DNA sequence: GATGAATGAGACTTCATTCAT
DNA sequence: AATGAATGAAGTCTCATTCAT
């Protein structure tokens, strides 16, 4: 009865993702509580009522935003695991710059901020995020660091700590992008994240490098 | 009745800071928009009306929270500048662990989250924060790194980038503390920040160390 | 395609009454204001839009429900007037139990409740109902009572009052059926209306019986 | 701190009952769903917001209306039980005319309609009403009928049936008052309820009267 | 004819702010 | 100074009605 390609149908199929996109932009910009559902609808080019045809409440819309946006990048991250061999440091640099610059430029970076902002009001979100994003990502990178140590490429260090040293600045860059950065407040380097990521990894890897036999202590 | 030391007077003098404290806790926890002014009053043990005796609006309360809370830690940070001599690496480690652990445990860490969360709705905040907190802090650390390079203790690196590599994880720890961390979601190391800070600085300093004469490149 | 007996045609002809039936059930159950037009459509097995093909608005639907449902029972009641002769009491009992038990079990009983519920919002309904239902019914029964008096079978009583004494409990039974009764709240006798009607008429007729010559007053 | 007789305090104490009264009038007139909370507030002379200071939701307001309004009349009915002796018929007439005319003229009569109208949407209401109003009332009257039978004043009849024959027309009068009656549609007797009640009881009592020894059957 | 996506007026409810006490 | 009752603008959500398909 409804030609699947009718303009009506096409609109309908696109609606949810149009609404999700609009909602994400606004939730990230203004916060969940400060965003009016009518604004979301307006940004998606529909009326108030239409929003509620697709999502039963503003809160469900928030959860859908988070779930849907992450799924893509979660999947992408996992693929990288199937990386071929080579010096671990190089692999790490490639993986991180490539993957992370993607994340930074993708909607996922906005989700980082959103999760940070809203966890305390919606703890489910945090639970989901930890399980689906943080832990897999941590394991992925931690595995590489471990490999470097096993192969004698890296010093024996605390894996979890190194993973944080590597990752937290990158996460922070994402948060910055959607907070201070989005207001045009940007201290120097914040403006060129991929350059910073390269430098940062260079510094970290230098720090990880296995000491020479005669190695003097750092401090 | 107006003896400045009468309990009543003391109460009255304490009001603003009690209200600020209550407001900060709630703004950080739930966000500005989701916090009701009555809640703030209740948490400070006064009535709704009293809040408006001290602050003309909820928005002014927010700004006061941010201004007032930061002033203390800004001052403290500045003092460290008057640090005496010694190997730069050691100085850096001492300065950062000491100062930062303090920040992490002080209300300032909460303000980081609050600023991040609310800049886009209240850009003045961001402007103030950048000028009073970020830039001075950045200069402080950047100065130390520069000194290390000048003295031949560190490699010649991009100063701003290193400052970010050093600082961003620490900032991120603060944000975590008041978002995921406050919900009990904590991956491994997040639980012991001062230990992480020590490890992190160790790694960075190792990476900064001036290469030996025969220095092979890291990658 | 327009064969009047084609299944499609039959469907179409039945639509209005299917919709009316669905509407009545829901209006009686939940009240007019609390019933959604989509529910009516769904219960009739059609879509929202179709409802508006047959009735221009929810309010017109209500009026149609009331008009249409009553016409049948109004007609039936009138037929009884053409009753043959016999003792008036017996006639009254037969007429009332037969007719009323029918009414009680027919959709008309639901309409009683609906009219009661909605008159004040839609006074036309009340006017129609009074003219077409209440007054004819009252005259029908009043005529019988009058006949009984004329023939010396009944005491000389106030006709209108007796009609009410006879009829109101029966009306009340109808209302009960669609309010408390429909919720499973039922005091004793409410459960068996035809038995009650018999007893009630017996009591009333006993009260109407012309007194003996030596008649002592009741009180 | 607040003088208990201050105008402010006095208003505050009166608010709930003013709101309840306004709500009852409107709920009875238009039905619960069709009454806007703002109308209730306006009729009570306050603003929308104030209503919600005293009742957490429109639904709770409805329940409060029913509970509160009935309590008075429930209590009054119970007192009558402590009636002194005398011929049962006379007692019944006095009790019913007195009590019922009061009920008819009190807000309770409105509640009858409200309960009837809303039970199916709010079953708790029906449960409460059955337990607190219908059953006690039924027992009260049933007890009197039983006494009449025991003393040989009345025929041996089905008690519950008689109670209904007595009471249902009176209840119906109440419903009428707030439905058709309130619209000015009134068939003859409906206009003078206390006169009708007298006549009705007279008829019923005549029907209840114990038959003479030579008693011929009614039919 | 039939559908159901879309609309937007309007309902319920909240909450920042005021002000009489 | 302190209170908390009152307000009403504003937000979330619903639903009668329309109209493109």
Automatic annotation (TrEMBL), chains A, B, C, D:
Q: Which residue ranges does the Swiss-Prot or TrEMBL entry mark as DNA-binding?
A: 36-55
Q: Which residues form the HTH tetR-type domain?
A: 13-73
| PANTHER family on file | HTH-TYPE TRANSCRIPTIONAL REGULATOR BETI, HTH-TYPE TRANSCRIPTIONAL REGULATOR RUTR
Whether Transferase counts among this entry's keywords is: no
Q: What is this protein called?
A: TetR/AcrR family transcriptional regulator
- Native species: Ideonella lacteola
Q: Which UniProt keywords apply?
A: DNA-binding, Transcription, Transcription regulation
User: In the record, which residues are listed under signal peptide?
Assistant: none
* PROSITE patterns with a match to the protein in the record: HTH_TETR_2
Q: Which InterPro entries match?
A: Homeodomain-like_sf, HTH-type_TetR-like_transc_reg, HTH_TetR, Tet_transcr_reg_TetR-rel_C_sf, TetR_C
Which Pfam families does the UniProt entry name for this protein? Answer: TetR_C_11 (PF16859), TetR_N (PF00440)
